[in-house]
């Protein structure tokens, strides 16, 4: 934006340039601009003197450049303009879907899979992907979706796999699931106990992680006196589930493990 400030009308007409913002990967950058020229109503010319000259090294940020036109005598006029150096916007993908896994019946050819594309942090827009949701993936295969975020000077890519298994081929193996009842004996004046245990976990035949999709209790829960409580963990992967369950007994008549 150009601003003019007249000290005396006889000083002449001084017009500052409009400089487009400069995008740079460096903190300092050389910026060239047209030095303002001075002229008066009589056709005379004057030298414009600026506190920053064209070709100066400007730091990232906004710098105000002021130029002054000196007339014959004491008359002068001045104007100011802005030089802006912007850093290169960071380019990256966020909200990238993790491995997407589906399981279908043995007689199904495949499955149609929906997904949300990653987001580009440079502008908040969806990334441009090699496959658009929804996609059909054949049973027993993996499709890799590659997405790209493009910035002014660089680009970033990210990818995620989409796999469809036959449900008969997916096995879940339970690990660390207690096989017996845990007995705890509180003192007679206690109403129950806070009980801790090592949580079970599971692995799949695909090598991918198996998540807990439901559980009835967590380590550190309170269990009342004279009770036997069944603790249940449900694990799921690609539509296949497996369950771990064990009992916690709180009673003054049992021998604790």
What would your notes on this structure say?
It is a single chain. This protein has 257 residues and is mainly β. It is built from no helices and 26 strands. The strands form nine sheets. Strands 1, 3, 7, 9 and 10 form a five-stranded mixed sheet that branches. A hairpin with a 5-residue loop joins strand 5 and strand 6 (45-46).
The geometry reads as elongated
> What is the average of the pLDDT values?
81
Binned, the helix content reads under 10%
Order of helices and strands: EEEEEEEEEEEEEEEEEEEEEEEEEE
What is the strand tally? 26
How large is the share of residues in beta strands? over 45%
Radius of gyration: 36 Å
The number of distinct helices, counting runs of at least 4 residues, comes to 0
Low-confidence parts: 1-10
Question: How would a crystallographer describe the biggest sheet?
Answer: 5 strands, mixed
Intertermini distance: 80 Å
Structural class assignment:
mainly beta
Could you provide a short overview of the structure?
The protein is mainly β and 257 residues long. It is 0% helix and 52% strand.
Notable features of this structure?
single chain; 257 residues; mainly beta; four-stranded mixed β-sheet; 52% strand
List the helices and strands and how they pair.
Layout: E1 3-6, E2 13-14, E3 22-24, E4 28-31, E5 38-39, E6 45-46, E7 48-50, E8 56-59, E9 61-70, E10 76-87, E11 93-94, E12 100-104, E13 110-113, E14 119-120, E15 128-129, E16 135-138, E17 141-150, E18 155-166, E19 172-175, E20 182-184, E21 192-195, E22 201-204, E23 211-215, E24 221-224, E25 227-237, E26 240-250
Parallel strand pairs: 3-10, 12-18, 20-26
Antiparallel strand pairs: 1-10, 2-5, 4-8, 5-6, 7-9, 9-10, 11-14, 13-16, 15-17, 17-18, 19-22, 21-24, 23-25, 25-26
